[in-house]
Design brief:
By secondary structure, the chain is of the alpha+beta class. The chain contains 13 helices and 22 strands. The chain folds into 2 domains: 242 residues, FAD/NAD(P)-binding domain (3-Layer(bba) Sandwich), CATH 3.50.50; 151 residues, no CATH class.
Length: 403
Amino acid sequence: MIKKDIIVIGAGAAGFFAAINIAEQAPGLKVALLERAKTGLSKVKVSGGGRCNVTHAEFIPSELVQNYPRGEKELLGPFHQFMTGDTIAWFEERGVELKIEDDGRMFPVTNSSQTIIDCFLSEAQKHHVEVMYSHSVSSISHKGGLFELATSQGCFSSKKIVIATGSNTKVWSLLEGLGHTVSEAVPSLFTFKISDERIKDIPGVVVENVDVKILQTNLVSDGPLLITHWGMSAPAILKLSAFGAVEIAKRNYTFKIEVNFIKQSFEDCLDVLKASKKDLSKKTVFKSSPFNLPKRLWYKLVLAAKITQETRWADLNKVQLEPLAGQLTQAVFHVQGKSTFKEEFVTAGGVSLKEVNFKTFESKCVPGLYFAGEVLDIDAITGGFNFQNAWTGAYIVSRNISN
């Protein structure tokens, strides 16, 4: 039996952040970081297309929490303890400068996730964190204030452990054995598979700002929309997939969405179209759009409204105007499946938030058991928010353990 003061399970973003900060704040403690894989930080490596989307430039806690479909209420207090500015300062103090992009995402100025990985590996070595790879945990028991862990390469004991394994169903099962409740994991942050003539053959088309809603639900979203080879993506869709993760899973990823491409009401759109009959009377509808839409999409929507390429604005009648207004403001698409967003994969599900003290991130069921990151039933939309949750939880854990 190998004795350690603190054992952190999971050598990902949250695990490294927790272990490093514990060891730094309490240098007398023997801290071990156990990882089932042969290497760690794999999610950090692929994040942000290999650049690592470290956090998001949102500095107001009440605004930041609105990006978390699950965990919004619980994270408000923690974000007052360790926030985006603290994350920026932590990395800068260790020689990693971050930059803010136009959409608020923050990356290392090197544009390389390896910068973050090298920082963590260097800090772990500096503060004598023992990183142990290929250690898959098979059992966890808690007796007399002591945790005992069996791994694929030996047994360990410690007074406190931190679970930072992300969406690991095997570890979730072990936590259920300790008395915790775990909600079923379902995918979040995914794109929609749609086969429809209106978006066929126009991949790469971007509409800057749309409204999207899932019919027969109260789920709505807005923002940029990207038409892809397989359907639709970009923030408007990804936000909807995150906030609707559980409901969409219940529908087996088959449902209908309604897209408003111009963010106007049907009536207002119809008024614009009627005015265009006069203003653009001699021009063809096909080549003259009164809306700021990509030409290729406009062509598709005009054809879907049964308007030919030769039709002039002056020749349009009510029977043609109304379907065109419908295509622009109430276009219904049938979603038949999902696709992973790039290499990133986020799940909704995890340890019940009711069973965690969010002042410390300690278990309410088992004293000395702490959580950080997506092992909890917390997830966010894309843009660096999932990492911010990891940094905040891991730091608060480290501060409470080291004290």
